[in-house]
Design brief:
Structural class: mainly alpha
Largest sheet: 3 strands, mixed
Order of helices and strands: HHHHHHHEEHE
Helix content: 55-70%
Oligomer: single chain
Distance between the termini: 26 Å
Strand content: 5-15%
Shape: elongated
CATH class of the largest domain: Mainly Alpha
Number of domains: 2
Number of strands: 3
Mean pLDDT: 84
């Protein structure tokens, strides 16, 4: 059944094309910086610079994944994907958060190694180039910031970018301390702080993504409250086989069997409409309700799930 009445307008403030342009621009900027840094790193013999270039490449890939997912998500439902393609964005977010967690873990590993074997840093050139990288990261962040608030997909790519910006800040701080005070220890300490920040954010966000993919109930809606409000409707004897999930981020859906009191079958349509209104008040606009007569209802069915 078509459910276009709530459309695919979940990017409320930025129209899709403008959003695509922003993400596309962010990809180009990051790829350009990657090329420049690899060239600079090879010419100056700075491994740090090549490493930073690879970081930026991971940013570009995170953005490309997010960009591709946005495109796929806008496809209309078809015979193969009857729910539509919107979950592509959720899958992309999972991929990007997973790689971010791996990057964070790798940074911790690197930092611990450096504590035991401090590496000399090639003074100002690295600081200057980290400054350039920081500007690019800030431009990318600015391009995607507004969209990140509304979309877990863009938020994951944005966090990749933020991690990179922090990495650049870290290189600038550590590099300056090394050059001025010969504090080689500053480098691994700053790295650990950044890695901890990245992991903290990624773990906080990945739960919500997994919840959508696992068809979990929306965190902001109480399943007990939904059952209660449906059972409170006049003429409703019971509600069972309730499923409450998120079709995609910020789009809850509900499916349930509703048993009507004996003698109320004539009011079935009115009761169904009243239930839909009650559910809309709770923020659930996509509902599928199966009505049963009290005499012929499912016997011994569980309230939630198909027990």
């Amino acid at each position: 059944m078509p459910h276009d009445h709530h459309g695919h307008g979940h990017h409320h403030h930025i129209d899709a094309q403008a959003g695509d342009r922003r993400v596309g621009l962010a990809v180009m900027v990051n790829l350009g910086l990657t090329v420049a840094q690899i060239v600079g790193g090879l010419l100056s013999g700075s491994l740090a610079l090549v490493a930073d270039a690879i970081h930026n490449l991971s940013d570009a890939f995170a953005l490309i994944i997010a960009f591709g997912a946005r495109k796929i998500a806008r496809r209309p439902a078809d015979a193969r994907m009857t729910f539509g393609y919107a979950r592509a964005e959720t899958v992309a977010a999972l991929v990007n958060y997973t790689t971010l967690i791996l990057i964070g873990a790798y940074l911790i590993y690197e930092a611990i190694l450096r504590f035991y074997d401090p590496q000399p840093i090639i003074g100002w050139i690295v600081v200057v180039l980290a400054g350039v990288a920081l500007v690019v990261d800030l431009v990318t962040a600015a391009l995607t910031y507004a969209m990140a608030k509304e979309s877990m997909n863009i938020r994951a790519a944005f966090l990749h970018n933020l991690a990179d910006a922090l990495g650049s800040v870290g290189v600038i701080v550590a590099g300056t301390l090394v050059v001025l005070y010969d504090l080689t220890i500053a480098d691994p300490i700053v790295t650990l702080v950044i890695a901890a920040y990245i992991l903290w954010h990624a773990f906080a966000e990945i739960g919500g993504v997994i919840r959508v993919l696992m068809l979990g109930a929306p965190p902001e809606i109480s399943t007990a409250a939904v059952l209660g409000t449906m059972r409170a409707e006049a003429g409703v004897r019971d509600v069972h086989h309730l499923h409450l999930w998120q079709m995609e981020e910020l789009k809850p859906a509900l499916q349930a069997h509703v048993v009507l009191d004996e003698g109320r079958w004539g009011d079935a349509d009115a009761i169904k409409s009243a239930l839909r209104e009650r559910l809309k008040a709770l923020g659930i606009h996509h509902t599928t309700l199966e009505l049963e007569c009290a005499r012929h209802g499912c016997m011994g069915a569980t309230a939630i799930g198909h027990g």
